[in-house]
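Sample entry (148 residues):
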Amino acid sequence: MLIAEDDPNDIFLLERALEKSGLPIKARFFRDGVEALDYLSGKGAFSNRKTYPLPRVLLLDIKMPRKNGFEVLRQVRSSPLLKRLIAVMFSSSAEERDIDHAYDLGANAYVVKPTNSEELIPVLRRIHDFWFLTNRPSPGLGPELHAA
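Predicted structure, serialized as C-alpha cells:
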C-alpha cells in the first residue's frame, strides 16, 4: 500500500494503527504528491520494480505539498500503466465538494480519516478486507498485485 500523507501526526497514527492491527500490509509513506508519483511512475531511484513494486492500493490525502491528492489522482487516472490502480481518498475533509471531486477524478472510494488510532484500526481492517481479500485487482496491473 502506498500512502501519500504529509502530516507527521497522521503518519504516526497510521503507522501505529497498522502495527496494532496485525494486518499484513506493507505500507510505504510519501510526504508529497510528487514523491508518490515518482514512485508510481518508476522514476529515478524507483525504477527497479522488483525493489519498488506497484502498490495494490493507493491511499491519498488531499492536502499535500507540491501536488495535492486530486492532482495525483488526475495523473494516475491519465496514465495507461496506472489508470486501474485502486485509489482511495483518505482525507479529513467531509465536504461534499471534495467527495464529489474525488469521484469525478476516478477515486475508487472516499474515506474520512478517523481522529485517533483506536478508530483507525477498524477502518484499516475494512480497507484491507475489501481491497486485499474481496476485490479482484485488474489483471493489467501485473501479477504481483494478485497476492494479498
